[in-house]
Amino acid sequence: MKCVFTVNVDVEAANVPDGQKHLIRFRTGRVLNGLASLNTEGLEALKKKSNGKVKPIAYFPIGTIYESPAAWKWCENGMAKPFDDECREAAGMTDADVDEAHRRFVRDFEKGIQPKDWALYDAGVIVGYRDDGSYEPGPKWDEYQEALAKAREQEDDDE
Amino acid sequence: MAKNRSKGVIFSQEISAVYTPIAQLTTLSLSGAAALTYDSTTLDGGAPKTYANTGYAETPEFSAEAFYDAGLSGHQSFTDLIETPAETNFRITHTNTGATTQTFATVGHKFDLTFAMEDGVKGTIGGKVTGTSNWPT
Fold first, then answer.
1. How far apart are CA B94 and CA A152, in angstroms?
2. In a 10 Å sphere around its CB, with 0-12 CB exposed, 13-18 middle and 19+ buried, how is residue A96 labelled?
């Protein structure tokens, strides 16, 4: 069965089946931060230039179609979408389920949102964290702050 | 040099060559790695005992606690390793700026499940690293 990855995924190059090794790309850092993506030739050139100090990480970029008996698991995990009926059937997910799983994957792993902040992220109050750990405001931030202020005023009035 | 947060660390299990992040982890540890020594103290030596390296290294055990979801394939993939033991690669993606990765092969996988009145359902996974731990260099 086949799936198509909706996020960049690290792979163990040696264990990718021979017929699919051509799908592998290499990176030298976090793909999510937009660092260079290289094909095999590019990697060799970079290794040579850096005197072998570069430590390449093999990965499949977004959009890679991969055939594996485990394809449905990555759909359930939010990393991929079914590419054929076999995978769709094994995953047993509607398109909405697949989208929701992907949204959760982005929230949990790409944005690194902590469980205590899931409600804020899901409601659009925050979109992530700044480098200092504080909240990165989302589209509903101001609305949320106003609601908090009103709730505080109400508490003061009640006292 | 930087003080990196634990928040954002990713622990992935290799499934069919793809490193698949394990969801809902709350802790992760890798402990017990050590260069092994032997007692090299001699009768004609000084008072303080001495030790020397054997040339071997003890590999660490990994352990991670998660809010366990029995219906999640990502969690089932780990417990599959208990029913069908198999040497399996795991990867830590560190939280430093370069997102350093550390990959190691593991065996002897184990799982503890806890239901407690004042907590969510928790599962603790663990295993033994075999061969190099690939500590970042």
1. 40
2. exposed
- Residue of chain B whose alpha carbon sits nearest to that of A80: B20
Yes or no, beta carbons of B73 and A77 under 8 Å apart: yes
Nearest to A76 among B24, B73, B103 (CB): B73
Give Cβ neighbours of residue B133 (< 8 Å, ≥ 6 apart).
B30, B33, B59, B60, B102, B104
Distances (CA, A) of A87 to A1, A8, A67, A100, A128: 5, 19, 9, 17, 32
Is pLDDT at A143 greater than 50 in this prediction?
A: yes
DSSP A11: B
Of the candidates B83, B54, B68, B45, the one whose C-alpha atom is nearest the C-alpha of residue B116 is: B68
Task: For residues A47 and A60, give the distance between their C-alpha atoms in angstroms, rounded to a whole number.
Answer: 20
**Surface of A (3-22) touching B: CB under 8 A:** 9-13, 15-17
pLDDT in tens, B20-30: 999 889 999 99
Q: Rounded to a whole number, what is the distance in Å from the CA of B46 to chain A's nearest CA?
A: 44
pLDDT tens-digit readout, A54-106: 667 899 999 999 999 999 999 999 999 999 999 999 999 999 999 999 999 99
- Chain pair A-B, CB pairs under 8 angstroms: 75
Subunit contact B73:A114, Cβ cutoff 8 A: no
Put simply, the answer to whether B18 touches A115 (Cβ < 8 Å) is: no
Complex-level ipTM beyond the 0.90 threshold: no
Q: Which residue has the higher pLDDT, B5 or A142?
A: A142
C-beta separation of A24 from A58 below 8 A: yes
Residues in B touching A54 (Cβ below 8 Å): none
B18/A70 touch (CB, cutoff 8 Å), yes or no? yes
Mean pLDDT, all residues of chain B: 93
Q: Is the CB of residue B76 less than 8 Å from the CB of residue B97?
A: no
